[in-house]
Structure formats: C-alpha cells, structure tokens
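pasting input
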Amino acid sequence: MDVSDLIDGLNDKQREAVAAPLQNMLVLAGAGSGKTRVLVHRIAWLMQVEHASPYSIFAVTFTNKAAKEMRTRVEETLKSPVGGMWIGTFHGLSHRILRAHHREANLPEAFQILDTDDQVRMIRRLLKAMNIDEKKWPPKQIAWYISARKDEGQRPKDIQAYDVNEQLMLRVYTAYQEACDRAGLVDFAEILLRCFELLQQQPTLLRHYQQRFRHMLVDEFQDTNNIQYRWLKLLAGGGSNIMIVGDDDQSIYGWRGAKIENIKRFLDDFDAETIRLEQNYRSTATILKASNALIENNAERMGKSLWTDGNQGEPISIYAAFNELDEARFVVGKIKTWLNGGNALQDCAILYRNNAQSRILEEAMLQEGLKYRIYGGMRFFERQEIKDALCYLRLICNRQDDAAFERVINTPARGIGDKTLSHIRDCARNESMPLWYAAKAILEQKHLAGRASTAVTKFVELIEHLSDKIDELELSEQAKQTIEVSGLMAMYQAEKGEKGRARVENLEELISACGQYEPPIDEDFSSPLQGFLAYTSLEAGEGQADEHEDAVQMMTLHSAKGLEFPLVFMVGVEEGMFPSQQSHEESGRLEEERRLCYVGMTRAMDKLYISHAESRRLYGQEKHHSPSRFLREIPEDCVEEIRIKTQVSRPTSTGRFSNTITLATFEESGYNLGQRVLHAKFGAGTVLNYEGNGAQSRIQVNFDDVGTKWLVTAYARLESI
Ligand SMILES: Nc1ncnc2c1ncn2[C@@H]1O[C@H](COP(=O)(O)OP(=O)(O)OP(=O)(O)O)[C@@H](O)[C@H]1O
Ligand SMILES: [Mg+2]
C-alpha cells in the first residue's frame, strides 16, 4: 500500500499531524474539523510508516461504538486486520487490565461490575444497617459523592471531612467500599481507580504496559477527568508518544468531574507540540457561522477559528411550538417529508437535553409508524426482566456477588421474607462474609424457622444445581436453562397483557443475544459466560435492539458528541430546560450549557431545526418557558422563524401515555390558539389550550402578568384584542 493513500484527502494541517515525527502532540480544533479523522490516519501512519505493531498501539475513544468504528476505519485504510490493537473507552480498557491481573488487583477472578442501579440499592441497604434515614440522605446523592471522590482518586483515608455532612457520607463510603470488596464488585468509577492503583503499585506490571504501548492516542480529550488524566500519564510515563485530540469548546462533562484544564496540564506535562485545524468539513457555512457566534459568548476559551468552503446551505429553522405535543408533531411532520424525499431515517437525529423528553417524541413517532432508536436511553440490558436473568447468571458465576443475590433471592417469590433476609444480612455483616455464605451458614446452624429454612434451602439448591448443570452447555443454552429452571420465565408468562408479553420476548431475546455473542479472542475470561456478563455491563448502552433497521436516531445532547447527521432537530431549547435551571445556580455551568448547545448545533451537516415550546408538561407539571437565551445569540441572518397557527393536539387527561393523541376541539371554543385576549381581572394574555365541551369546557391562557391559568370558558368573558 502506498503511503500517499494515508495522507491524500487531508489538508495541510491534518497532514502535518498525521505525518509528524514520533512526539507528543495536541490537536486542538473546533467541531467537524477532522480531529477524529486525523487520529485514525495517524494510527494507520504509525503502522505503515513507523512500522509500529498493532500490539504497541493504545487508543481511547469516548464510546464503545466509536471504538468499533475506529478499528474498522483503520482496517479499511490499511486493508489488513489489526487484531492486537487496544481501542476502547477508558472504562473498557481499564476493565481489560483488571481482568488480566485480578489477583494483583485483589479481586476475585469472577469479579462483577456494579451498575448505577445496583450501586444505589447497595447503598440503601447499608443506610438501613447503619440506621441512617434515607430521606435525609438520598442513596443516589451518596452514590454521586462516592463516584466523585473516586474520580478524584480519593479513597476514604485520603479525605478530610470537616463538616458533619461529609463525615456521614464518608462513613457510608467506607462501609460501601468494604461491602464491594468483600463481594468482589466494582462500580464504574472503581474500575478506573482500581486500575490506576494497580499500575501504580505494581512496578513490573506498569513497566510491561509502558513498554508495550509505545503509541497512545486519545480522542475527545477535553472530557477526561482527574483519574483518567493521571492514569494516562502513568501509562505513558515510560517514554511513549501520546497524541491527544480535543476541543475545549466541547467540554460537556464538567458536572461529572471532567476538567478542561487537563488540556493545559497536558501541554506542561508532556512538552507537546500543538497543531490547530481550522477548516470545517461537516456543516454548511450557515450552521458554522451560527455555532461560532454562539460559542463566542463564552469567556473562558482557548480560542479557535473555523471556516468552510462549503456552501451557504439553508437557514436554521426555529420553530416556536405551543406545547410539547405541538413540537413533537412538528418534528415528526418534517421527518416524514424528509423520508418521502427519498432520504434515510438514520440520517436524521433528534437531540434533547434530558432523557425524559424522549417519551413524547417517541409517542408521536409510534403514531406515525416511524422507526426510531434511542441511543443510550433505557437499554435492553437494563430492563427489569433482563437484569433478573443476568443476576441469576452472575450469582452462578460468582457466589460473592451480593447485589445479584439480593435481586434474585425472592424473585420469583419463593416465600423468603424481609425477616429472613435481614437475618442473612446481619449474619453476613457480623461475620464479614458474602450473603450467599451467610445464608448457608444460617441453614447449617438451623437458625431459621421451618418454612423459611425450606425456602432458603431450595434457593441454595437451585443455584448449585444450575451451576452444576449448565457448566458444560453452550452459552445460549445456559441462559435458557437458567431462565426456565429459576422460574423467571413462568413468572413473566403469568404476567398479563402487553407488558408481560414484552418481558417474555425480552427474555427470549436475551437467549438469542447469548447465542450471537462471541467472546473476544484476545481477552482473558475464565468462561464465555464471564465474558458475556462483562459485555452486558460495559456495552449495554450501545448494543441497540435492531441495529440494522433504518431508524431515526434519538439521543441526549451529551451522547451526540463526536457524531454527525445530515438533518438534526434540537428540541426543548427553552430557558429553564436548556440552559437548565440548575445552571443558573452554579458558576461555570452556564458556559458548559452553551458548549453543549455548540456540540448539538455542530452535529448538523445540512439542515438544523431548533424548537422551543411555550408550555410544556414534564415530570407531571405544566411549565411555561421563554425561548432560550442561546437562540438570541445566533445571528439573525442565519435563522428563519416558523410559527404555524393551527389547532393543537393534547391527549385526554386519562390517555396521556396512550398512543392516541386526541385533537382538542378548539374550533368549538370560539378562540384560536395563540390568540391575544383580555380578561377583566388578569389582564392581557395568550390562548394556549382548550379542553372539554360546551359548559364543561375550559380554556388555558398565559397571562402576561399573572402567568398561566385554566378558566371555565363560559365564565371567562375573554375579549379578543
Ligand atoms: N480533509 C478532509 N476532506 C474531506 N472531508 C473531511 C476532511 N477531514 C474531515 N472530513 C470529514 O469531515 C467530517 C468531520 O470530521 P471528524 O468527525 O473527524 O471531525 P471532528 O473534528 O472529530 O469533529 P468533532 O469535534 O465533532 O468530534 C467527517 O465527515 C470527515 O470525514
Ligand atoms: Mg471527533
């Protein structure tokens, strides 16, 4: 293969980065300037020109999906497989190191990953045992505290807690850590920290990896947190070359501990060369101009300029919806037009600030029969029935897994009540042993009453029987047997209605997922089941149900990072939603929200729609918002405003979450949506909504001075103005 193939199709600056001598480098550039492309070409260049073995390359991406794509792109460029190369997320790669050296890391061979749900459950249990009121100390908040400390590399012993609040959280952190260690469980933050400590404490191991990974590359560097940075520094400390690419304007995980300052820290620590890319290849000139203008409102920037020689393109359309249903209908209408124009659904993305916003859009999409895929939302492996089944498998693999034990001991119900459970928990705590062994000990000591004792014996026998029986079977057969023999399948089959049916289908889907699973050849798992369980924890978010179907891509703004789509909708761009309410309260947060807006806008290649709603019902509350300040920061000549005054759709009060959206009979009211009216007491306002018939009917008006009110139409005596 010709070397020119590696740099053809790159601009001068990009070439400079790809073909640079072996050195530390920072590629700092705005969105869509080809940073990721440079990274891929650099890997190919290292192998082709510098004769680097794939084995010596270590690349970090932001998601597993991005890692897969990157591997494919390198293979396409080089026209040969690159099996031994390590590409993955920080978590995935650390996890891999921990697996290979679990003993040195003080972990059982079958250690399991504790997801956020399990983590909260475990903390709740600890709070109870410690007599701490969970209303005052929400487990979620404590989980957050623990992860944040771990992201900073802090163990309980490293923390000086001065006030009582923190002292309490610290006590829980300590107890939590002990419980995790006892059970061989690691949470997400622990994966990174444990791996960092492993490398730090085992010089021989560290040297091994330092000598192996001569070439390190990191995409989306602006979102690394403290422990990730220190981890990289440690690993690169043996004289490896490290190339990081990033954009300070796209740093959007500050709230989770990411530090933009790591970019400057890198320049100091690594004596790196900076290369800036300035040409944008992704978006139309209009989209680029608008996003550049927006981000200029941030004070703290490293400063960049971006230009494009692409065409002007269409203006950005801003739609002022009456409410969230109107907004959803608008978006779906535009998508249908797009589809009818011969375009693919997958080229279109809907981006929102919070996951909860997806519901209403999903409904509208379902109603129109449009396929969609939620990227990183409620995922298959997180569904209740799937987690039940996985917990059985986890317990079969590792009896020390307390979280799994807790979840399945009485699912399906087998007569093991709270009292028996507390008994087991007490024993586990007193004897410092996992719940499983505590249960067995209690049985041996005959401490349980007859019925409870029989029930627990049956459970213990079930797990032991399954574990013996399935050992020799194929993975999918293992799953099948477990789901059936445990009684899960029968339990969900007995559940009536659509939901039960869906759960059974999901369990079946899990069996087929096991059948399709291929353990990675180059990773150290003691069994295919082990490998599968790790896969479900790490990749859950990205393994979409039907990957090959053409579908609209729906995701939060955060998970859109690094991606691009010809057609993009950004919805809910309102004050209080985006920027979020909390961002007003903490310093620096508003700038982070603006960066998030910049990330969203720069995902669009050809056409961008932005919408906001005057009234929105979310989390069960009706709220009124003005358009986001970010909209005012977009130059007028980049924008076209759309406002259609038609009837609004609003589901009946009982049918809110059904698939039928009924049309309110506005015509009957004698008023129009959006019409300006005057009320004798409340003054002037705008008509927003209408429901009911005749004498029962009510009208909703947003009054300029007193806010929104529902009035009985017959008595409101509204005058139109
Ligand atoms: N020299 C080039 N010629 C033509 N197209 C290019 C060139 N460089 C990059 N592109 C294209 O521009 C688009 C954006 O590139 P890429 O995704 O690498 O940008 P990025 O800087 O990583 O963006 P982000 O900051 O959003 O991650 C891609 O479609 C890519 O293929
Ligand atoms: Mg990128």
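fyi The chain has a mean pLDDT of 87.
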